[in-house]
Design brief:
Elements: H1 13-24, H2 27-50, H3 57-84, H4 90-104, H5 112-141
Helix pairs in contact: 1-3, 1-5, 2-3, 2-5, 3-4, 4-5
């Protein structure tokens, strides 16, 4: 392996970066990034907006961490998609966790507001995450 070219010197690296950069500039990717950020903020703030933070502190903390993680991912996708597209699959996973968390975390009071906030926020993260993944998949399919 001593004669192999490091990835930084690979001749196709510039083309790959340009392809992912073009993919990130599509309207689908931009909308998906925006919904990822907004969905993450909604999940993070929903316990305090709807008032269930004091009722279920474990779910409130979970939503805060999950939501902020999704928000940071959305910002990372918007800023450097060519470097972060490989972890786009984590957004739908965070969305699924957001939906399931209300039912599996101990000490969680299952109320209409907790279920609605987590199901709606989780669904937004799933759909936005799939939208973030779409440009990279299309880009791969056309090469």
């Amino acid at each position: 392996m001593s004669g192999s070219t490091p990835i930084a010197g690979h001749p196709d690296l510039t083309e790959m970066r340009l392809r992912y950069e073009r993919a990130s500039e599509t309207p689908t990717a931009q909308v998906a990034n925006g919904f990822t950020v907004l969905g993450g903020l909604f999940v993070a703030l929903s316990p305090w907006i709807t008032g269930f933070a004091a009722l279920t502190p474990s779910l409130a903390l979970n939503n805060l961490i999950t939501g902020l993680t999704a928000t940071v991912l959305g910002l990372a996708f918007a800023a450097a998609y060519h470097r972060t597209h490989g972890i786009a699959w984590t957004c739908p996973v965070l969305g699924v966790w957001t939906i399931v968390a209300v039912f599996v975390l101990s000490g969680t009071a299952i109320t209409l507001s907790t279920v609605l906030c987590n199901v709606i926020g989780g669904a937004v993260l799933i759909l936005a995450g799939l939208g973030v993944m779409a440009p990279a998949m299309v880009s791969r399919a056309t090469t």
